[in-house]
Description:
Elements: E1 2-5, E2 8-11, H1 13-23, H2 28-35, H3 39-46, H4 54-64, H5 68-72, H6 87-105
Antiparallel strand pairs: 1-2
Helix pairs in contact: 2-3
Amino acid sequence: xxxxxxxxxxxxxxxxxxxxxxxxxxxxxxxxxxxxxxxxxxxxxxxxxxxxxxxxxxxxxxxxxxxxxxxxxxxxxxxxxxxxxxxxxxxxxxxxxxxxxxxxxx
Length: 106
């Protein structure tokens, strides 16, 4: 669900969780298993019937490599984990990201 308020867009937690889960090709059951929860709890999160506790929110952020601010709609930035890459590979990834951002601005 995308809510537009003036020039500010808010995406609810459930929609962000669903998009992240789908982008990783994960089922609700797979996410639930990683969190030691049930599939129905994940479904309740995705439909905004229920919100996770702080500790579960932190675990969700870790699973998907995002910040809790991103999950809560405070920040629109997503993180890219480049740990384990060589210095030259890291520079190449950062260069590509910067080039794509410049193209989007045009």
